[in-house]
Amino acid sequence: MSEAYDALKAREQAAIMNTYGRYPLAIASGKGCRLYDCDGREYIDLLGGIAVCNLGHCREEIAEVIAAKARELVHVSNLFTQREQIELAEALKTTCHAGKVFFCNSGAEANEGAIKLARRYMRTVKNRDAYEIITLTHSFHGRTLATLTATGQDKIKFGFDPLPEGFTTVPAADIVALRAAVSPKTAAVLLECIQGEGGVLPLPQEYITAVAALCKEKDILFMCDEVQCGMCRSGRFWAFQNYGVEPDVFTCSKALANGLPMGAVLATDAAAAGFVPGSHATTFGGGALVSAAATKTLAIMRDDRLAERAARMGDFAKALFEDVRAQYPDKIAVIRGMGLMLGIELTFPGGEVWKKLLGRGFILNLTQDKVLRLLPPLVIEQEDLKRFASALADVLGAI
Ligand SMILES: Cc1ncc(COP(=O)(O)O)c(C=O)c1O
Known about the structure:
Layout: H1 3-15, E1 27-31, E2 34-37, E3 42-45, H2 48-51, H3 60-72, H4 83-93, E4 100-104, H5 107-125, E5 132-136, H6 145-150, H7 154-157, E6 167-170, H8 175-181, E7 186-191, E8 194-195, E9 201-202, H9 205-218, E10 221-225, E11 249-252, E12 263-267, H10 269-272, H11 288-303, H12 306-327, E13 332-338, E14 341-346, H13 351-359, E15 362-363, E16 365-367, E17 371-374, H14 382-398
Helix pairs in contact: 3-11, 4-11, 12-14
Bound molecules: pyridoxal-5'-phosphate.
């Protein structure tokens, strides 16, 4: 490690709460699919700030919008009507079937909002004492008390009990288990069509179709968490669109403003009726600056056809990785994913492989101990993917 890094690390340890097992580098700047550390070393970014910087780092058009808005209007609160927020909601509506949008600041806050909406919708619109949210094993929905309770991974919950009531987790991709769990107390099913933190696990088509049908049959809300898999990453604007279903409520965040903190709950007009003035709120959500940045992000996604690009580049990457797997079938168990949300599951704990790839200048994530997770900016070039595949083959050959 360099002196510059060591000095920053020491200051971090003295001043920042100890919640992250961080990568051993300090990033100083970024451009497109490149990141540069505090010593000026260049990296190919295959993580995109964890599925956030879908247009690449420091995109010029977004930087211009942010700079201009910062001089005109940054924040006034939701006590006021804001043109920028309305324009963003209208732009989001052109991407899907939703009728109304609520803006917030993060993925967890969006899911928290969706959970509140489901409960309130059942109580006030349906007049039913239904509050339970059913979620799936391997899911991840956030770190607030409600969303970590919704999350189907025990390690996320450890030490935080007592947890809020009204959540049940059932095995993923098991429609019989889900049907058995639905009761008169059920308000909604919440799932990620492609589970991200859980190890890049796309749920089967027949399962998603059956969940949507079950929710209709039981008159409960079908809710999708699109925080990671949404916004063009999966090859469609929203991941549920790959499955031909229309959730009553869905959430997004990460890539919405290409790096500025923002989240949103989107709902059909019918489901959105669960909220009335005073029932849910946030000071910052949908402020002028972040909304303007997000509207520009959406415009670029549309104009540059980034969903189609993600599908194309995802297929290209998968084919490359399958070649590496053919070379090392004993080391790569499976390649999974949709679009540019890709998982390479190793047959052994991947810490060493991840570290060697970082040493060669590739930034990616290791999830569930064995899964190399790739969530690159959607503007990534074939050449970068080829360089990664070749480095992966080298590293696997040497390990
Ligand atoms: C599917 C999903 N939902 C929710 C969240 C939580 O988002 P945030 O970290 O912005 O609260 C994440 C974060 O990784 C996520 O992947």
